[in-house]
Amino acid sequence: MNHTFLSMIFILLTHLLVGQELPEKLSETDFSLGKTITIKSNILEETRALNIYLPSSYSTESLKTYPVIYLLDGSRNEDFIHVSGIVQFGSFSWINMVPESIVVGIGNIDRQRDFTYPSKNKLDQKEFPSSGQSEKFISFLEQELQPYIDATYRTTTMKTIIGQSLGGLLATEILFEKPYLFDNFIIVSPSLWWDDEKLLDRQPKPFDSKKSIFIAVGKEGEVMERTAKELFDLLEKNRKQHTSLFFDFLDDKTHGDALHLGVYHAFEKIFKSHKE
Fold first, then answer.
1. 225, 194 in Cβ contact below 8 A?
2. Residues 6+ apart with CB under 8 A from 7
3. Which DSSP string corresponds to 61-121?
4. What is this structure's pTM?
């Protein structure tokens, strides 16, 4: 009985589909969010892939210049696509959250190597055997990548860095040691547990230029939450008048999904402060 009923339904649906006239496809084209280029780094002694997002006006407004957002973990299968989407959405004229910007996603080869300074912790050394080369990677950013982007594209002087997890550790190290490299620092879920939290013992280098620093962390456990707040408190203690500092606890996010909302909130806060 049930088998007969199901057979009748299947026959009826088949007749309906056969009798339905589908629309004719007139054309099909691909569209892309950006482009991928490969450069040879003499400092890193390897080739590196860069994913580049250009605003839609870049090709039509030949005299316009654009801020640059440098994204760590910027491979296509990492954070490049969704962060570039936030930039595109945020720069729509009816949203006006972030200025039209170029996004440079830095593809990874070995993030454990590039994003960490040498740790004296034996467990760190065992679990991350290639670690400890952040100084070389920072030199690559300063001496090769930034000059290449400025020479290749129409850029303003405003530079932003986005780093999450080990990328947040690196962004913090840059803020402490070479703050002049970026104007805006977006640091999400930084892995400040590295090297027994020794980075938090450093005294950040002073700077005179205007900075915006945004720190965010999700519900990620005692160590992650505590060290992110300690980073904020340390910077707040030494904050100058020309520094905007923000902290965001994303209580409904975890380490895996905090970045997207963190970046959105950072853009809201940072670029609003630039307008004021």
1. no
2. none
3. -TT--EEEEEESS-STTTTHHHHHHHHHHHTSTTT-SS---EEEEE--S-HHHHS-PPP--
4. 0.91
Q: Per residue in 34-62, pLDDT tens?
A: 999 999 999 999 999 999 999 999 999 99
Q: Classify residue 42 by burial, with Cβ atoms within 10 Å: 0-12, 13-18, 19+.
A: exposed
**Under a CB-based contact definition with an 8 Å cutoff, are residues 171 and 116 in contact?**
no
Report which DSSP code applies to 245. E
CA angle 135, 139, 142 (to 5 degrees): 140
Characterize the bridge pairing of strands 155-164 and 66-71.
parallel
pLDDT in tens, 232-272: 999 999 898 899 999 999 999 999 999 999 999 999 999 97
* Six-digit token string for 121: 């912790």
Between strands 102-106 and 66-71, the pairing is: parallel
Backbone phi, then psi, for 211, in 5-degree steps?
-135, 150
Q: pLDDT by residue (tens digit) across 82-115? A: 999 999 999 999 999 999 999 999 999 999 999 9
Reduced to 3 states (helix: H, G, I; strand: E, B; else coil), residue 269 is helix
Q: Are 33 and 53 in contact (CB under 8 A)?
A: yes
Residue 2 contacts by C-beta under 8 Å, 6 or more apart in sequence?
A: none
Contacts of 42 (CB under 8 A, 6+ apart): 144
Chain segment 191-242, per-residue pLDDT in tens? 999 999 999 999 999 998 999 999 999 999 999 999 999 999 999 998 988 9
